[in-house]
Amino acid sequence: MVGIKLRTSSYAILGLLSIASMSGYDLFQAVERSVGRFWPVSKSQVYAELARLEPAGLVQGTDVHQQGLPDKRVFRLTEAGEEALDSWLGSSEPGEPQFRVPFLLKTLFGHRRPPGDTAGLLRAAGDEAAAQAGQYREFLELLDSVPDSAYARVTVLFGLRVAEAVASWAEEAQALLPERAHRIDPRREPRLATEMFRAAPAVRQLG
Amino acid sequence: MVGIKLRTSSYAILGLLSIASMSGYDLFQAVERSVGRFWPVSKSQVYAELARLEPAGLVQGTDVHQQGLPDKRVFRLTEAGEEALDSWLGSSEPGEPQFRVPFLLKTLFGHRRPPGDTAGLLRAAGDEAAAQAGQYREFLELLDSVPDSAYARVTVLFGLRVAEAVASWAEEAQALLPERAHRIDPRREPRLATEMFRAAPAVRQLG
DNA sequence: GGAAGCATGTAAGATGTTACATGATTAC
DNA sequence: GTAATCATGTAACATCTTACATGCTTCC
Questions:
Q1: Are A203 and B33 in contact, with CB atoms under 8 Å apart?
Q2: Each residue of A27-77: pLDDT tens digit?
Q3: Cβ within 7 Å of strand C: which of B 62-101?
Q4: Buried-most residue among A50, A158, A183, B193 (CB within 10 A)?
Q5: Straight-line distance from CA A202 to C1' D19, in Å?
Q6: How far apart are CA B193 and CA B188, in angstroms?
Q7: What angle do CA B14, B16, B19 make, to 5 degrees?
Q8: How far apart, in whole angstroms, are the C-alpha atoms of residue A71 and residue A61?
Q9: pTM score, two decimals?
Q10: Helical pair A115-144 and A150-174, crossing angle rounded to 10 deg
């Protein structure tokens, strides 16, 4: 049992193993079909995590011989692994969500584009969100017939509600776009622009 | 003029400079008060980007001597920089949004916690989202008096709508939580769990 | 006298991605 | 025969974060 630093991705792995024992291969598939939506873990990360978690005594792999398929190593949570997972789950700090939304950058810099272009961008973003919402709805229906899936349903519902919000924002936003281009030339009137920045609330304390 | 690879963070910098010429210091402040909400760029990244963009001829720095304050280097967009920015803006590919939401991990693994705990987590997450929504509302009011800020308003509106959706999801979700703990033991019934994963739609094509 | 703001960076490392490598078996 | 699935990894590198370093000025 070695003391290692557990990151959120480690807990994602531990959590999945608390639902079913799995090989690295299965784990990656499971990630892509579950937590990958809101906490991506790449294939090589999965294997890297397992290679860290096992010597630390949090998971335990067992070689399984298969006929007709390659041998594999199936990992299960150890008691120490359960404790580590539960102690992380125990704190009700939600943890800071991280968002990276490239199309908002393009939206914010709309002053440099012909007005119609930004409307097109919003339409495209809205369409994608609507398609996503559809997927989530289907998934929810499917979960209705799965026993003990209440927490999964609530999680999927998050994706649905956010996707719906983005889709309806895209509609709402198109009506608010200016019809004429307003070009901002930073060499002519920098004062106004910097003042706008100063007026805006900062993401966090500035150091 | 050197050909360099521009990342999304580069365009964030170029875009801000298309609103006002600024020093690295000012740029970081501007990031934290604007694009940082949906595209974070750290202080050292800002300076690193400027050091890349200038030799490539996309921005041009000018030394400005100040009395009572340290000297600074103010950067402006060059014509090549404007072209690079506009050509990126020109494509209406929205770009793939990235989300990382730790509390959804904790929600999904609720089967390991006493039932009340997950409700507490949702309450905390909902409260934070509601507080955020309030901030966005204030910011929107402030922008009402700023001329030519239509694109900024639309961008802030996105944050507001998403925050509202998260807050109302947190309310809705609490009613859907199971009252009794259902423990899933991966050593007893792994079949059900893995089948659930298989039924779920994958984030993207699996390779 | 001390804290906070202005100003610019470096250095180290955390974290994660993509592509590559390998090889057997099964389904079409 | 060819593609896909199962299975496990390595190697290279892209990207970004945190903490540290420095020094002057203004405000309390």
A1: yes
A2: 999 999 999 999 999 999 999 999 999 999 999 999 988 877 788 999 999
A3: 66, 69-73
A4: A158
A5: 21
A6: 11
A7: 115
A8: 13
A9: 0.92
A10: 160
